Amino acid sequence: MTERKPGPGGGVQSLQRAFELLEGLADTGGEASLSELAATTGLPMPTIHRLIRTLLTLGYVRQNSNRRYALGSRLIRLGEGASRQFGTWARPYLAELVEQVGETANLAVLERDEVVYVAQVPSTHSMRMFTEVGRRLLPHGTGVGKAMLSQVPPEEVRELLHRTGMPAYTPHTHTEPEELLEHLRGIAAQGFALDESEQELGVRCIAVPLADTPVPAAVSVSGPEGRLTKEAVDHLAPLVQRTAAQLSAHLAEADLEFGA
């Protein structure tokens, strides 16, 4: 039996390289040629050929008609499972936030250029905001999306907006890239984003990005403008920021425990 070479930290090098290849595909927008993968990952071409054949067989990579390679459909199941687990352990933090602010709390991640809601704890008000878990929206028109984009380098944001376009959800949605980029700089400076009826008329949202997460993520509270007033934002935003810090710390502790 051929012995597997150990990777950093005693791991299996071939497994490490397979994930480097998948992440390289994701970094190129989900599709690339073998030469582009070699440039992105720094892996030798013979290694890429061998790994690609295995990943094709397993369904984690597919080959398009133009002979370029793309992320395979079997990754969707893994991603959806990870998102559900992410949402499950986040719910107690969201529930505490709802008790503090009285409005619906959400957790979302950025996945393939879209905001995906992975957890929610609803308000106890009879009139409350519902954004279904699993719902996908473009990031430029949501509070959580803008919070996440505020942590992304401007050139990467421009590329994302070029891929997705900037359709208007309401008359208040940002639809010009440079205007949005200027808006994102303000969000980064103040530490939270506001959705002012940009995704749904009459709804205000306060969103804060999580720090040092494997994928961009953000937590938010949302409610009718009549309850979640501009005056209320000043004392509610720090509570959302504290929840974001707690979620970030929980993730960091989990990573340390796994790596120990």
From TrEMBL:
Keywords: DNA-binding, Glycerol metabolism, Transcription, Transcription regulation. GO terms for molecular function: DNA binding; DNA-binding transcription factor activity. GO terms for biological process: glycerol metabolic process; negative regulation of DNA-templated transcription. It comes from the Bacteria. The keyword rRNA-binding does not apply. Signal peptide: none annotated. Residues 74-253 form the IclR-ED domain. Residues 12-73 form the HTH iclR-type domain. It holds the Pfam family IclR_C. InterPro entries: GAF-like_dom_sf (IPR029016), HTH_MetabolicPath_Reg (IPR050707), Tscrpt_reg_IclR_C (IPR014757), Tscrpt_reg_IclR_N (IPR005471), WH-like_DNA-bd_sf (IPR036388), WH_DNA-bd_sf (IPR036390). May be an activator protein for the gylABX operon. This is Glycerol operon regulatory protein.
